[in-house]
User: What shape does this take?
Amino acid sequence: MIGIIGKNLILLAFFSSILAIVFYYLDAKQQKPLFEKLAHGFFALKGVLMLVASGLLIHLIFAHQFQYYYVFNYTSLDLQAQYLAAAFYSGQEGSFMLWIVFSFFVGLGLMKWTSPVYRSPMLFFFSITQFFLLSMLLGVNVFGTTFGASPFRTLMEQMPQLPVWQVNPDFIPADGSGLNDLLRSPWIVIHPPVIFLGFAMMTIPYAFALAALWKRAYQDWIYPALPWALGANLCLLIAIFLGGYWAYETLSFGGYWAWDPVENASLVPWIVGMAGIHTMLVQRRSSSSKKASLIFAILAYVLVVYQTFLTRSGVLGEASVHSFVDLGLYNQLLMFMLTMIGMGVVLFVLRFKEMKDMHREDPILSKEFMMFLGALILFLSGLVIILGTSSPIIGRLFVEFPTPPEMSFYNNWSVPFAILISIFSVVTQYLWWKKVNSAETLAEQLLFPTLVTAIVAIATIMIGEVRNPVYMLYILGVWFGVIGNGWVMVQVLRKKPRMTGGTLTHVGFTIMLLGFMGAAFDRPMLDEDTVNYNQAVSRGEVLDKDGFPVIQPINMVELKIDEPKFIDNRYWVTFLGGEVTEKNRPGESEYTIRFEDTKRNGRTFFLTPVMYPMVANSSGGSMNWTVDPEIKVGAFHDLYTYVAGSSIVERLTNNQNNNASEISTTTEDGEIQTRVIRVKRSGFLELDDYKVTFQDFEFMQESEYPENATIAVRAILNFESISSSDSSITIKPEFAIVREGEENITWAPPVNLGDTGIVVQFTNVNPQSEEIELRISGFKSVNEPEWVLLTVEKKPFVSVVWLGTFLLMIGFSVSIFRRWNDQVRRERNEKNRVKADDENLAYE
Assistant: This one.
């Protein structure tokens, strides 16, 4: 019943969006209050309907209604509350709903704060984007074609071919598939909502630009659009930061950015949005760059839609770890993207000749020209990234299975752009804030930051032992950006503190670029023996068992419990122990590592990296493992540690692959062990000198039942000696359920394993999984040393990246408040002017 209600709510919201589009269009053409009220009403109705539908889906998720495909596919009974909440937007359908809901709230803000001149025209285009997003959720079949995928479709609707429906049409799974293991991180609670809020806000400059083209108002649109553009870019920046930090803290590739196609497709709208903000500032100041401002505002949102197409259409295939499951929305997403592009291109071409800047040519050293040139460099850097990102699609024109470019492609192209952006960020700031009439005057102004930059850059190169000429240029350019922008910021802060937003963003951006340089100097921290081995490998002196040279160095340290090793000529590292904790996931193990810093008077700290099995990604009797790194944060470098392997993981993997697991081990009198194991039919487990195999069940005859037994079964077990291949013993321990009064109890008599002193009890059975539980006692205690393979990496300047990002956020926030207040004051003055004109007209 709830599913039917949810589907109908989405359908009604879809038709409401159509009516909102119609009445916004009529009001934009005829400017009648009735049309505006109806348009606002249908827009609000659409939002309320989607809020209720979202609430229903969240209810189904928390109520574990696994008969619904979305709930089954993204949740399970073991999920904690925060992950159940995050499951709402973990799939395509839910994330579209979140995007629409955020767009609704943004639309309410536009109704309240947008000038009547632009309100209906821009909400007309804004509502068109909502129409396409809602169409993705319809799940309606029209003449054999299905439009959208409903989040309220049932398992039977999604998978009608399953045989279970023939036997039991009301079948409901006992549990769901669960959330992807990599998504079980607290960061999933905040990162996706922020990025979808950014997507919703990025629609606003796009809609303003199209409204300006439609109404031929090529200048005034930037005043109300600029604060929204700044807000949209701030949201995307926060989302990118959260995603980068999530990857750095949670994933094992050891960085905050991997140039993944979907990461890139989120970055490029931000870069193009930044370029658009700069051209809007130029237009605001001098009424020039009208065309560029319109192009960048349109292009930024088109790139958001393109990112949506890449992520959700299935075109990337395996090229991105971020891609959603393909729901067959390719054609709809393509139409969405082409429509957004088409509206912008058609209106821009129709109005191109009418858009004229002021009749003057800006000299090369003018603030307008240099800022436009800086925006162009930003755009070109984004263009290179999006071309590389799109290579899996473009490449299909030439080869059947194109491969995406390596990380080196992006790194090599980004370095020169970063140098240029750093230099131009300083030059434009000096031209913007200071009176510069000639190249000589500019050179005088830049003399001080240039000298300081030379000193600091040379010191950095010498201390860091930098030998690569490209890196030297990068360090020189980025330090120039930090020092030059910092000097301007200090002067602006003293005279006009409320105007420091722009200079602060420039400082933050260049500090962030400086931090990026540290990634080129990441290195593993190793003990002396491993360093010597790697040097021998590099000289070709190490051969494998077949006599071929070993080419792969070792980048980890093997630690045995309580046996410290000295790494990086600084730290004594000791493995203190590990245990299977299962804090957040089944099979999760945690390891305690002690570090003693010899350069800081033996100061000690502890790190606890984690390994866990990726249950959802494992199949065919093979268990895949991943890690949660542990990071020691420092001012100038981080210690990044994760476990690459351990004796615990080795045992768990072997047992899992053999359809068996050891549940517990207890020791009596320091020698005799009792072990509890679980093993499936045909599975086996190695216990000390024995390979224990559960061969099969053997049902007992009723005449063999113990008294009052309701069912009884034997387990055929084979104990094969590992050290002596001729020694093998088969036993058949028994298990029964016996009725005693009103209760059922288990009957499990012990069975001796010959004269070995080992006793076996068959203590439980799971008929569905064909798994039995055995209690085996009498083993002699054998202390096998625990070990761990630990990767420790030194990562310079990561904190500098975060510092630059935070300064960027603060700078954006300051600019938003300033531009918002400017717009409020501008609208107030405009109202006062109109009121005064009306009074004068009445007086006359």
Notes: DSSP finds 22 helices and 24 strands in the chain. Residues 532-651 form one domain. The chain has a mean pLDDT of 88. The first helix runs from residue 2 to 30.
